[in-house]
């Protein structure tokens, strides 16, 4: 797969930790998930998934509790889930997921982040068809062979299982996310290095150093937007 998920997560967490931006994004996502269903992860799969992701980023408990309590309190704050698609230099493709309480503001900010950094926003469907929704789960302390055996015994299918930086990374269909985690938990695994539902490019592109520098500025500009939750792309950045 070539994504090096542990490195990507660590790089992103290190960047966001300095500004606590990641905590704010998770707080919003937890609030939305809790408000859309029961504020209990045992009966709300969307909330359960967000909390699993938050755990891998070491989001503080008080951030999680505050977001859930806000949802329980009947806050009237509402957010729309939006997806934008666009293009960067030399055929690079980008998907941007956002949660916003002001659609016009978010659309304008995303369009500007693309346009000011050599890219342009496309129409719905112009990019997404080149990506596959994928569950990515990472564990330590297991070999690829042991991981495959655990999944087989639990009758859980995986697209791929690879080793990266002393961790085993499992790629699976999105609806297998919780099944993969449960299989590993039953085998004694308590912590996950990665727990993501992502949009994985069907093929990556490599940019020239100049284009890559511009592309990274564009991605940084998009990720810095308050309303943006996730940014996916098809560029091999060499992490």
From TrEMBL:
<dbReference type="InterPro" id="IPR002876">
    <property type="entry name" value="Transcrip_reg_TACO1-like"/>
</dbReference>
<dbReference type="GO" id="GO:0006355">
    <property type="term" value="P:regulation of DNA-templated transcription"/>
</dbReference>
<dbReference type="GO" id="GO:0005829">
    <property type="term" value="C:cytosol"/>
</dbReference>
<dbReference type="Pfam" id="PF01709">
    <property type="entry name" value="Transcrip_reg"/>
</dbReference>
<dbReference type="InterPro" id="IPR029072">
    <property type="entry name" value="YebC-like"/>
</dbReference>
<dbReference type="InterPro" id="IPR049083">
    <property type="entry name" value="TACO1_YebC_N"/>
</dbReference>
<feature type="domain" description="TACO1/YebC-like second and third">
    <location>
        <begin position="79"/>
        <end position="235"/>
    </location>
</feature>
<protein>
    <recommendedName>
        <fullName>Probable transcriptional regulatory protein QY95_02257</fullName>
    </recommendedName>
</protein>
<dbReference type="InterPro" id="IPR026564">
    <property type="entry name" value="Transcrip_reg_TACO1-like_dom3"/>
</dbReference>
<dbReference type="Pfam" id="PF20772">
    <property type="entry name" value="TACO1_YebC_N"/>
</dbReference>
<dbReference type="GO" id="GO:0003677">
    <property type="term" value="F:DNA binding"/>
</dbReference>
<keyword id="KW-0238">DNA-binding</keyword>
<feature type="domain" description="TACO1/YebC-like N-terminal">
    <location>
        <begin position="3"/>
        <end position="74"/>
    </location>
</feature>
<dbReference type="InterPro" id="IPR026562">
    <property type="entry name" value="Transcrip_reg_TACO1_YeeN"/>
</dbReference>
<keyword id="KW-0963">Cytoplasm</keyword>
<comment type="similarity">
    <text>Belongs to the TACO1 family. YeeN subfamily.</text>
</comment>
<dbReference type="InterPro" id="IPR017856">
    <property type="entry name" value="Integrase-like_N"/>
</dbReference>
<keyword id="KW-0804">Transcription</keyword>
<dbReference type="InterPro" id="IPR048300">
    <property type="entry name" value="TACO1_YebC-like_2nd/3rd_dom"/>
</dbReference>
<keyword id="KW-0805">Transcription regulation</keyword>
């Amino acid at each position: 797969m070539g994504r090096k998920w542990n490195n990507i997560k660590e790089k992103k967490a290190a960047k966001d930790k300095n500004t606590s931006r990641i905590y704010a994004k998770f707080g919003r996502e937890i609030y939305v998930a809790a408000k859309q269903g029961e504020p209990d992860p045992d009966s709300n799969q969307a909330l359960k998934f967000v909390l699993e992701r938050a755990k891998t980023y070491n989001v503080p408990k008080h951030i999680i509790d505050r977001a859930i309590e806000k949802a329980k309190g009947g806050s009237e704050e509402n957010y729309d889930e939006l997806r934008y698609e666009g293009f960067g230099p030399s055929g690079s493709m980008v998907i941007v997921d956002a949660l916003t309480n002001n659609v016009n503001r978010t659309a304008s900010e995303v369009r500007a982040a693309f346009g000011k950094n050599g890219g342009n926003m496309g129409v719905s469907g112009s990019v997404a068809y080149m990506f596959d929704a994928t569950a990515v789960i990472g564990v330590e302390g297991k070999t690829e062979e042991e991981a495959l055996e655990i999944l087989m015994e639990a009758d859980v299918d995986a697209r791929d299982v690879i080793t990266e930086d002393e961790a085993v990374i499992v790629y699976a269909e999105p609806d297998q996310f919780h099944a993969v985690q449960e299989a590993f938990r039953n085998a004694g695994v308590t912590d996950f290095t990665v727990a993501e539902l992502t949009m994985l490019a069907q093929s990556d592109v490599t940019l020239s150093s100049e284009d890559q520098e511009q592309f990274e500025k564009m991605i940084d500009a998009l990720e810095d937007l308050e309303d943006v939750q996730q940014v996916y792309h098809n560029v091999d950045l060499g992490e």
